[in-house]
Amino acid sequence: MLSNWKTINVLITTGIPIPNSTLNGFQNSNASIKNIYFGNSGILPYNISFNVYPSYYASLNLNNTITIKGNNGIINIMTPPYLNLIFVLIYPKNILKSSIYIPLNYTISIYKDEAIINGTPSIYIYFNGTANIIIENNTKILELSYNTNGYLEFSINGSKYYQPKYLINYNNNEVNNWLYKSKNIKNFEISNNLISDYYLSLLFIKDSQNPITGEFAASPSPIYLYNWLRDSSFAAMALQDGNHLNSSYKYWIWESNIFSGNNWYTRYNFYNGEPDISFGIPELDSIGLFQIGVYNYFQITHNYSFLTSVLPALNKTIQYEINQINNSKFHLMPEDLSVWESNMGYNFWTQSIDDIGLYYSSLIYQYLGINNSLIKYYENLLNESIIKYFWNGKYFYPTLNKAVLYINNTQEIILSPAYSRFDSSTILPLSLGFISPESNTAYSDVNQEIAHLTVLGGLSRFIGDDYHYSQSLYDSSAPNPPWIITTLFLAYYYEQINNITGAINLLNWAYNHSQNGLLPEAIDPNYGNPLPTTSPLTWSASMYIIDILNLPQNTSNKLDEIISWIIIIVLLIAIWYVMRNRSILNK
Question: Where are the transmembrane segments (predicted)?
Answer without folding.
Answer: 562-579
